[in-house]
Amino acid sequence: MYGEVVSTETLTPHLIRVVLGGPGLDGLVAPAGADSYVNAFFVPPGAPYEVPFDDDAVRDLPREQRPYPRRYTVRSWDADQQRLTLDFVVHGDVGRAGRWATHARPGDRLQFRGPAGDWTPSPDADSYLFVGDESAFPAIGGALERVPSGRPVVAVLETGSAAGELALSSPGDLSLVWVHRDGAADLDTLLVDAVRGLDPLPGVVDAFVHGEAASTRAVRRHLLETGAVAREHLSCSPYWRRGLDDEQWRAVKGAWTREVEVEGDVPA
Ligand SMILES: Cc1cc2nc3c(=O)[nH]c(=O)nc-3n(C[C@H](O)[C@H](O)[C@H](O)COP(=O)(O)OP(=O)(O)OC[C@H]3O[C@@H](n4cnc5c(N)ncnc54)[C@H](O)[C@@H]3O)c2cc1C
């Protein structure tokens, strides 16, 4: 499956929206959840093939010519217009995917598999807590739109500075808490410190904590240790790791996840 860039939009200094369309999206299965993502493939410059390519044919190429996989959340899918919207974090002139989004022009193609992932805010929860950095804004933006009308929902969102703040809305009773990396002493604790400062949310809290690995780990541990959120109501995922590219991160992610899974148990 592949899409052709229809338009791009700079949402903030950190986020670029890319809208894909075209016949390569025929048959796309509608994303099931707020966090549904595609596994997109970024073709290195000079590679001897173009999108659409045959997965099997590129598998045996030298590493530097094979496509680089990266996961991107489906911000929205308009089945009538056949438009797929992805929001990319751009982090300087680094990153296969970030760079692709920075330079994307109408007609450029992006091949992908998916979507997969089906988390959505539970309609039975009493309140909601969504926490993340820009990589999770697409999922959090979609989750906010799915919160039942009038229910309390708090989103704690990390970005570089005030210029990185997005206009987000929800039918729920929404409080947005922005935290800024600029001037912060410790990036790993920025989000958890903001979460610690929140007033308790009422009743059963459904929580979604996705984004940078160390930051989400700290928030997860805090929420479980304090009992603010029950394990079965917590969706937590380390999307990326500061200082590592995606290949390096995937090489250690399994071990990281196993360590994290045993954290946060409340002592008996
Ligand atoms: C299920 C899932 C859904 C995701 N959805 C999205 C999404 O919708 N939008 C999105 O932008 N990302 C999303 N991500 C995260 C994204 O896949 C990674 O951040 C990926 O590493 C970016 O690839 P890259 O090629 O741009 O950078 P890489 O080549 O992987 O990394 C290059 C450098 O940039 C750093 N870096 C990577 N990501 C970030 C970041 N977010 N902020 C600052 N520095 C960074 C790395 O640590 C490294 O130093 C998602 C991840 C998962 C697992």
Describe the fold and architecture.
This protein is an alpha/beta fold and 268 residues long. The chain folds into 2 domains: 115 residues, Beta Barrel (Elongation Factor Tu (Ef-tu), domain 3); 135 residues, 3-Layer(aba) Sandwich (Rossmann fold). Helix content is 23%, strand content 32%. The protein contains 6 helices and 11 strands. The protein has a 6-stranded antiparallel beta barrel with strand order 1-2-5-4-3-6. It has a 5-stranded parallel sheet with strand order 9-8-7-10-11, with helices on both faces. Strand 10, helix 5 and strand 11 form a beta-alpha-beta unit. Bound molecules: flavin-adenine dinucleotide. Flavin-adenine dinucleotide binds next to strand 4, strand 5, helix 2 and strand 11.
